[in-house]
Queue: 4 jobs
Job 1
Amino acid sequence: MGRVIAVANQKGGVGKTTTAINLAASFAAAEVNTLLVDCDPQSNASSGLGFVKDPERVSIYDVLMGAASAEEALLLTELEQLWVIPSHKNLIGANLELVEADRREYRLRDALAPLRERFQFIVLDCPPALDLLTLNALVAADAVLIPMQAEYFALEGVSELLDTIERIRAALNPELVVDGVVLTMFDERTNLAQQVAEELRKHFGEKLCRTTIPRNIRLAEAPSHGKPALTYDVRSRGAESYIRLAKEILDRQMGVVAEEENPPSAPEPGEAA
């Protein structure tokens, strides 16, 4: 079964869409079938992969409203093993239209279920809000990846997100875990960045990704060309950082799978535990 990762943070401007695009592209470059789902009405993940706005195109809005299947919305990108389900501005209205809908929190989960065998990773780019769209993404997800800047306001915002995740675990999706927190736009030369990183390390421990994403011009330029960083300039620091992040997540996933398949054996009677 494929693993569904929601890239979420209700705070805007933290590099969430950049992370979703480049993480998905890096999985695909590692020859892993990957799907990126653009759950944000701004459609930045769609345009960042070269898909201009098209009102006639089947989008995630149609999928959530039950007008189309997720299979019908798939678009292949220029990377051979990366597909995208694009967004649409009508998605803004879905927050209201779904209020009275049956299984409103499970719409995305139900829609993606038939695709989980086909894709090893499904990456969800969430909007910068804790609304019904983000709720759908978190209910559909196995794990959450939280991008955040090394700023003190970011520490305050992430506690709200963690509280929301706990509520969703209790009521709607008990399997949901925090896969990691990744520092974006990171400048290791500043004392503030180092201090915030240390605070996060104390709070999250191993959940804080070893890989940090630096401020990088090529990374910022890539979306205007409709490309992920690794096809725009694979040797840029930004592209290299996301390739390392994808490898870190893949290694973690392989470690979890290996542990599930080969759990530690119980000690023999009389043997020291």
Job 2
Amino acid sequence: MSATTPDRIPVTVLTGFLGSGKTTLLNRILSERHGKRIAVIENEFGEVGIDNDLVVSADEEIFEMNNGCICCTVRGDLIRILGTLMRRRERFDHILIETTGLADPAPVVQTFFVDDEMKAQLQLDAVVTVVDARHVALHLTDSSECQEQIAFADVILLNKADLVAAEELRALGERMTAMNRWARRHDTVRCEVPLDSLLGIRAFDLGRAQEVDPTFLSDTAHDHDASVTSVGLDVPGDVDAGRLEKWLRKLLAERGADIFRMKGVLSVAGSDRQLVFQGVHMLLETSEGRPWGRGPRRSKMVLIGRKLDGAQIGEGFRRCLA
């Protein structure tokens, strides 16, 4: 267990592969009556920001970075935003950093040990990794990021436990333990877990992090799988619900195995509320979002996957416009 200093602000790094349930967990944390003032820093993979539209309204202040991977090209932004928070530190009890699903958490965590100002004023409390029980087996063999997220976790939420058989869940739990014997594990549905199991637990251990990665404190480069790309669409106007459903079904039937994650906030003709959708591989879930305000309506969506044809996807989506 890490030593604690009372005047340092605790920081939780929330990680997990694409579609594991990080936004669901973040919304739970922001909605619970825990009495804490929490600052949230978000990072998205792609040029169109979606997550800020998916996060529930709350008193907490949300800082969003969507200009690359938080663990490499925007580390300067991370340090700058944390510096701003520290100058206003009396307002916050906890800081939560949600990384992109394609982030190796090690360089994010490294920030709190290689920067003197960060080290003096912030306490890394824990790395919490959300794992998609339904799809994790697809990524463990070919994604180093997925493996690193589990290996560096202090807490693992084996999420979507209701979508797999009991025997498969047991086997996955054993696999998680084999990959990271130190992490506390919770099998969850929609990330339902007591928040005192996640926040203020003082679980991060620098020595263990260096055991997982001996080069942890060195300034090494970090590369993503070049075949994994994002397609971002931001289109004014309404979409036709019938055409949209038909297009999505066709897209998932043809490319579902290669689409790791889909998410969007859409303006549907005839509806006065946003349509929110979230998808992981072949699974797609929709729900009503916030009412549309007085400003112009538009539809935004992001797809993340392997070898996606952005022009073709954009053309198909625009054919859904009303």
Job 3
Amino acid sequence: MLQPARPAANNRLLASLPGKDRQHLLARCEQVELRFADVLCKPGERIRHVFFPTDSFISLIAPIKGHRGLEVGLVGDEGMLGISLMLGVSAAPLCALVQGAGPAWRMEAAAFCRELKRSPALQRGLNRYLHVTLSQLALTAACTRFHLVEARLARWLLMTRDRAHADEFRITHEFLAYMLGVRRAGVTRAASALRRRKLIRYSRGKLMILNGRGLEAAACG
């Protein structure tokens, strides 16, 4: 159910804006509940809305011909979905899949573009966010090519924890295999290795991070 935008944002990108700019933008947003596994956009589709997650997060998945695709990024309360609009590109480059259900601010693409022209502060904030996003995409590509599944899984769990704001979440081996672009057996071996080192606990789809620092040491750089 849609709800009118009211008070302060719980999105850090929006929270970094000056008060007047933030309130002007939020007045043009609506709060929505993102549901797990919902597809918000597909590659090549016209971007109709941008999303600023608050207590939700979104996987960015690159299409690969002959395969299910590969997760190349995550969007949580630190950022937004639809950043390509600030480059004048209205077609979605990646598939956006809700990984963590919860609320988000939603805004029509046309209204967002008008806000970009109106607010230099928003432009500066998004320029920084775009730089970080591009850096993360490059690091993910390098990680996928050179690092073992165990290290990639540790990194993925830490990134997910940062956006879920919790050490415990539900996830299946099948979904992890999809996110990492590997066979389910590879995820099972990697998760078992992390479990033997007492870094995680995993049972019946429920995963808990037991040792965050240890997991950081196990993750790729």
Job 4
Amino acid sequence: MSDAKRYDVAVTMAPVLRYAILFCVAGLVLVPLLATALGGLKSLGELRVNPFGWPRAIEWDNYRSILSQSRYWLLLWNSAAIAVLSVVLTLIASAMAAFVFAHVRFFGSRFLLSYLSVGLMFPAAAAILPLFIRIRDLGLLDTYWGVVLPQVAFGLAMSVLLLRNFFARIPLELLDAARIDGCGYIGFFRYVTLPLSRPIIATVGVIVFVHSWNNYLLPLVVLNRDSLYPWPLGIMAYQGEYSTDWQLVLAFVTLTILPAVVMFIAAQKYLVAGLTSGAVKG
């Protein structure tokens, strides 16, 4: 086979191979979600003998019984309140810090940025005991803030790095023009940087929201009242000492991950633009 034919075959097979890989990755993500949603439509007996197949008789009562309980909506409200507070505080703090690292030159800036990057290698579970002691001393146990503030602290490192890389790509000519017109750093940050940075802001917001929405360990340690539990702790209501209502667990999980999925789909355009903003130099 000649080199030209080999090249034509490679060009022809490249899209096929690409779509095959994407199809496999999509299957790994969608199949568990579909199995969870279908599992919530089965009885406990059918779920044990047919965990992955299509339900023989659809049991809408599993979803109906969960939606009719006020406890489910209370759990959803707690998760939403904690997640929204975490997103707002993380974006405010990380955006201002990232702007300083990107456009303000001062002594020790590189050292501080490197020191902040160390936080990416520090797991939150390793600090759970001293974190609990500090939250207790501050009187934040059994409060939203006892969960929100540590989540913001542990999410700052990644958020600052993502935002800083995007802010650094904003042309310096805009900053020079703004300063000539009498606009300082604060005005440039507010009127120029933030409007141009909506893709990366949406990206960081979605990442922080999903992380907070699925956080289990920190609320388990900090919260003791059932009225403050987020949805990951609400699953325990369907787990008994000797048995578990798995059909209700799967229905509950399906209903509670829907907000995160909807938010991810709604912000998908900004996510792609934000994550690929630093992939090409130009």
